[in-house]
Amino acid sequence: MKMWLLFVGTLASAAGCHRPAATATAPSPPAATALLDSMDTRVPVPLLPMMANHQKQNMRDHLRAVQEIVGAVGTGDFDAIARAAGTIGYSEQMGQMCNHMGAGAPGFTAQALRFHHTADKIAEAARGREMPAVLAALNKTLATCTGCHATLKQRVVDESTWASLAGQTTPQHH
User: CA-CA distance, 39 to 18, in Å (whole number)?
Assistant: First the structure.
């Protein structure tokens, strides 16, 4: 037991698991946020708070659908793959939402629509029961995800800023 405690203590010391000195000061949250923002070179997508929240909920739903696709790939369940891909595929409603969310950020809408259209290819390949095509389409879909997240970021703005950047009046449904 003594040897085990010595081993754990050595690991903790080597890994730097110790409290920072009491004299160390961290930047205040606004300063820290500004510092992070200055390092993040992605293009901001201006969104109202309720739009940003809605978009994050959609992203989590998209991720859940991708998880369902991967799980169904693992079991060879083509019907489940097609169903899950259908939830993130293109629809007129999805197109309108992408246009609205991206109104203030050139390039966002095209990238978002590309994601939904690549998801359509997953469903198409699943209906054809072509696993290599499912995996290739899933790879393209995930590439659109990583490409978008690598180049764009949310920026929450007030109503007048959003209206100015989007060239639209602010939405009235909250």
Answer: 27
